[in-house]
TrEMBL record:
Name of the protein described by the UniProt record: Tat (Twin-arginine translocation) pathway signal sequence
PROSITE patterns recorded: TAT
Keyword Glycoprotein: no
SUPFAM superfamilies, sorted: Xylose isomerase-like
UniProt key word Protein biosynthesis: no
Any Pfam family: AP_endonuc_2
Matches recorded under Gene3D superfamilies: Divalent-metal-dependent TIM barrel enzymes
């Protein structure tokens, strides 16, 4: 099965959780913003990308988050304008995308970010998200300081283009180094206006941390969440939201403190039909968490 890391490597990108937070004016969040990270359907997309997008809309989602864009491959084999038109046909939007930024972060490809900005604007995105850091970029605290510097520079370029830079975590960022963590460095050494964070709640819990404590320490920094549940028997596996061990009701009760604007459902493995799975997660989020 394709993993995120393997996919990014294959695409040449390593080497070369969706809703507006409830306000005091409304009793219930607007479900039109529930989204899905399309990496969830990475096995199905190469077979019939247009059909997959249609099934995502049928499941109830109104937003998608992309992954794996390149100038050669586009968005799942489609040029940005073609992909944007497909989304429009299904009453979908793509406010955010995961773009492989390792070469840019390493200082090897300054033009890469511009190509991503152009593609994002063509699809009317708001967020360009760094989804992963290769091991060579995160060996020390000073490495993370360099990452923060490059993310800040990317944030300036995104802001100038009317976009927002953001960073998506796994669990390695929370490992201790020099009495701190890589994640703390990224938070403290980036401007909150230039770099937002997409908090992957599964990876936070898997790292042994409490997402609500992160909200308290860094209010307003987490404009996007990845919402995927942890299998009760094996924490290395995902399951449908509401069927696992993560206390999502407590997390969602504190959504306003986090500053969240988009909840992006994601799942990386299945024990049922993937399209049945994503519909089940959507329904649980809509009916039980918002």
């Amino acid at each position: 099965m394709t993993t995120r890391r393997n996919f990014l490597q294959q695409a040449g990108l390593l080497t070369a959780g969706i809703l507006i937070a409830p306000s005091c004016m409304v009793a219930k969040a607007d479900t039109k913003n529930i989204g899905i990270q399309l990496y969830t359907l990475r096995e199905e997309l190469p077979k019939d990308a247009k059909g997959v997008i249609g099934k995502v809309a049928q499941a109830g989602y109104r937003e998608v988050e992309t992954f794996g864009y390149s100038d050669e491959w586009g968005f799942f084999g489609m040029k940005p304008k073609e992909f944007a038109e497909l989304l429009k046909q299904h009453n979908l939007t793509a406010p955010s995308g995961h773009f492989g930024l390792d070469p840019y972060i390493a200082g090897e490809n300054e033009d890469m970010l511009k190509s991503y900005i152009d593609a994002a604007k063509a699809v009317d995105m708001k967020y360009i998200i760094a989804p992963y850091l290769g091991q060579q970029l995160r060996q020390s605290a000073s490495d993370y300081q360099r990452v923060a510097e490059r993310l800040s520079k990317a944030g300036e370029a995104c802001k100038a283009a009317g976009l927002q830079m953001a960073y998506h975590n796994h669990d390695f960022e929370f490992q201790q180094m020099d009495n701190t963590t890589g994640y703390d460095i990224l938070l403290s050494e980036t401007d909150p206006e230039l770099v937002k964070f997409e908090l992957d709640l599964y990876w936070v819990v898997r790292a042994g941390l409490d997402p609500v404590e992160l909200f308290k320490k860094n209010p307003g920094r987490y404009e996007l969440w990845h919402v995927k549940d942890m299998d009760k028997a094996n924490q290395k596996l995902n399951t449908e939201v509401g069927s696992g061990s993560i206390n999502y009701k407590q997390i969602f009760d504190n959504a306003k403190m986090a500053g969240v604007k988009h909840y992006v459902v994601e799942q990386e493995n299945f024990a049922m039909d993937p399209f049945q799975s994503i519909a089940q997660s959507y329904t649980y989020v809509k009916d039980n968490l918002l």
